[in-house]
Amino acid sequence: MANSKYEYVKNFELPDPLLPGTFLLFRLDGHSFHRFSAEHNFEKPNDVRALQLMDHAARDVMEEYPDIVLAFGESDEYSFLLKKSTSLYNRRQSKIVSTLTSYFTSCYVFRWATYFPDKPLEYPPSFDGRIVVYPGEREIRDYFAWRQADTHINNLYNTTFWALVQQGGQTTTEAHATLRGTYSKDKHEILFSRFKINYNQLDPRFRKGTILVREEEPEPTPAIEQVASAIENTATPSSECEQPATSPDSAKSKKQKKRAVKAKPRTRVVVIHTDIIRDEFWSARPNILVE
Ligand code: ATP
Ligand code: ATP
Ligand code: MG
Ligand code: MG
Predict the structure, then answer these.
(1) Is residue 69 over pLDDT 50?
(2) What is the predicted pLDDT for the residue at 120?
(3) pLDDT given at position 225
(4) What is the C-alpha separation between 240 and 250, in angstroms, rounded?
(5) Confidence of residue 219 (pLDDT cuts 50, 70, 90)
């Protein structure tokens, strides 16, 4: 097709590749969710339905994009780690950021009624998205530690703040004033002595945030026919060396053999609420940082 005289404007579009061989960390965050949560009557300090909806949309994203190896969510934000070797959209920054943000947003809206059956959406929510490039494993571990520490700090503050308001009868201004200058141990003390709340026994979802990882599915018990066909495919026929190497049948059976032996284990995305800061999480899942 002949180019039009207008085509030159395309040259203004510059490539935006992300450095090869680096971890890509994609984070999205709800736009003005302070308002969105108020207009949709989210329970304070933590609306479980809203958190589960975020988790579901994030799981949808991970199922759609196999190169995402880990995700972490809290409040109105989610972080996704793409493996170092990913060639998703040729590592074009705006393509990755825009498609992932838009896919998450539509999944959030798509699944809204499952979590809020009695509360119609008042207006369309939106999320911002960004990618940060990290060179090594240390920074990736510290990134997730940073987000989980943030979850803890915010949740301890919010839990104490809302206990003062909802159970202690303070106004929001008074509650902010009560908490001004307090340390973590003071908030634990207020929660326990005034409201009989043992912070460490609260739902780990609120204290630790949500982690999404891929786990291998247990091997299904093979059906009898599959076993029979695998045996048939792996048995070396006595005449094999006499057959021409180019025989389509022989090529086909070799392919089948390979598939039977090297079938990739099926994985599924699982939701956990655990410590991501200490070594245990990472040493139990060495694959996250290798690829
Ligand atoms: P910005 O557009 O700059 O991100 P924001 O209003 O979204 O502004 P954030 O710092 O992202 O501000 O905070 C999100 C706010 O959304 C929280 O402070 C909280 O009030 C509310 N929120 C999000 N998720 C929940 C939830 N599950 N339960 C209760 N409140 C929530
Ligand atoms: P990419 O993800 O790279 O954008 P794409 O498949 O979306 O790939 P586009 O170049 O964006 O490719 O083209 C969009 C295609 O969608 C068109 O070629 C056309 O086939 C189809 N399409 C979009 N809108 C309409 C429409 N209103 N009616 C019929 N077909 C449409
Ligand atoms: Mg926000
Ligand atoms: Mg936020």
Answers:
(1) yes
(2) 98
(3) 53
(4) 8
(5) confident
Neighbouring-strand partners of residue 78: 28, 73
Q: Which domain holds residue 197?
A: 16-215+268-279+282-289
Pairing mode, if any, of strands 23-30 and 77-82?
antiparallel
Query: How much of the chain, in percent, has pLDDT values that exceed 90?
Result: 80
- Residue 165 within any structural domain of the chain: yes
Can you tell me whether residue 99 is helix, strand or coil?
Answer: helix
CATH value at residue 135: 3.30.70.3000
Residue 229, pLDDT score? 55
> Does a structural domain hold residue 231?
no
Q: Residue 72 Cα, ligand 1 centroid: separation in angstroms?
A: 16
Q: Are 103 and 26 in contact (CB under 8 A)?
A: no
> What whole-number distance in Å separates Cα of residue 79 and Cα of residue 120?
27
Position 4 in a domain: no
Pocket test for ligand 1, best of 54, 76, 115 (most atoms within 8 A of CB): 76
Q: What does pTM read for this prediction?
A: 0.86
To the question of whether residue 181 is assigned a binding role by annotation, the answer is no
Residue 92's nearest CA partner among 14, 155, 38 is: 14
Residue 1 lies in a domain: no
User: Quick check: 230 pLDDT over 80?
Assistant: no
Report the separation in Å between the CA atom of 198 and the middle of ligand 1, taken as the mean of its atom positions: 24
For 97, 156, 291, the CA distances from 26, given in Å and listed in that order, are: 7, 26, 17
User: How many domains does the structure of the chain reveal?
Assistant: 1
Index of the ligand 1 atom closest to the CA of residue 35? 6
